[in-house]
Amino acid sequence: MHPKALLDLTTQLIREVLKLDAPADSIVSYFFRKQKALGQRERHALAETAYAVLRQRLLWAHLAQSGHGPQERRLALLAWQGLPHVLKNGATPDELAWLARTATIDRTQLQDKLRHNLPDWLANRLREQLDDEGFWALVETFSASAPLDLRVNTQKAKRETVLETLAAAQIEAGPTPYSTIGIRIPGKPALQKMPIYTEGHVEVQDEGSQLLSLLTAPKRGEMVVDFCAGAGGKTLALGALMRNTGRLYAFDVSAHRLDNLKPRLARSGLSNVYATQIAHENDDRIKRLRGKIDRVLVDAPCSGLGTLRRNPDLKWRQSPKALEELKVKQTAILDSAARLLKPGGRLVYATCSVIPDENEGIADAFTAAHPDFVPLNAAEALTSAGVENAAKLVTPAGHLRLWPHLHSTDGFFAAVWQKKD
Q1: Which of 74, 219, 383, 394 has CB 3.0 to 4.6 Å from 67, enough for a Cys bridge?
Q2: Mutual orientation of helices 3-17 and 24-34 as an angle, nearest 10°?
Q3: pLDDT digits 0-9 by tens, 49-66
């Protein structure tokens, strides 16, 4: 496709994405369905440009004020600054001159809001937790895309074997630093057609998410519940840790998300998973299991603000009001999930958020309200699961706390309890 046509399409996509009325990945997918003639390379360029604009929205909107023509086109041009060949053939001489002028601006002298590209309320919440150096390191991480993490399906393969397969395919990869079942790939190769993927030897899963399954630490023959299973990434990890024995219930209120689990489950080779749609956290199908479950993982619905490397639109689509509504839901879900545990059972509450209200706030309130649940130190639990240097991942209060700029994972939180015998 000629760069001029690509620039026009990019401008259209940015206009749709910046409406912020739906998740960016859904908008991009819908846009591509309407543009069936696009090749894989063009789709990649369009998507990366849209996500770059979402990451740098405030700064680039500020710079775009000085240009001419539709703002979305100027935002696309700013995103294309690293593509001189495309710019040369797609932009006008006036646009190229304007871009050159913007490149001379000393961005370190701009106001903080334009440098961190975060809404004020979110920037303030992060600054409360991090020193100045840590805050700007996190901002830099959020401004970049995430690496590709894989979880090795230990029912079918060993990590060393998968690494050898990737090396033979000339794909740069290495073991994840903490998860014993993870592999990290710096680039974004197309794995979907490789046998290691189609035959279920690996699944795409962030290392932080893998650690939640290791923290739950299910054993052979146990009864385990993934309470908010979604598309089932952690369900599959739990099933493999159980060595395909026992019973693993995957609950979710969304039939669509559970449908996405079906092909992944087929690839995995697991037969101990029972995926079930529920109406709400107090569904009768849950009540029937009260007091019978050995381990429950609650990966609660949350703001998702730990995933801004992947979902930069969330920082513009979330709000303090939405957080308040989520806290009510999180508390209700955790209370209901706790009723499933048998004496001696383990409960894990987790989010992919970096906001204490959704994390320590919910966990501490649960501990205070449930004296029959004893908090466990996440470092000890992870060490028992074979994770090295687990102390680096845990707060002084014993909670798992992962930061993108410190651990190269998404932002995650988890608290662990054991029900008294």
Answers
A1: 74
A2: 140
A3: 999 999 999 999 999 998
Are 203 and 153 contacting, i.e. CB atoms less than 8 angstroms apart?
yes
Catalytic residues: 352
Helix (H, G, I), strand (E, B) or coil at 349: strand
Question: Nearest Cα to 18, choosing from 44, 43, 48, 51?
Answer: 51
Angle, nearest 10°, between helix axes 120-129 and 132-142? 130
Query: Could you tell me where the DSSP H helices lie in 3-103?
Result: 3-17, 24-34, 40-55, 57-64, 71-79, 84-90, 93-103
Task: Name the CA dihedral angle for 219, 223, 224, 229, rounded to a multiple of 10 degrees.
Answer: 140
Residues 315 and 14: their CA atoms lie apart, in Å, by: 16
pLDDT digits (tens, 9 = 90+) for 288-317: 999 999 999 999 999 999 999 999 999 999
pLDDT tens string 34-44: 998 899 889 99
Cα(365)–Cα(252) distance, integer angstroms:
24
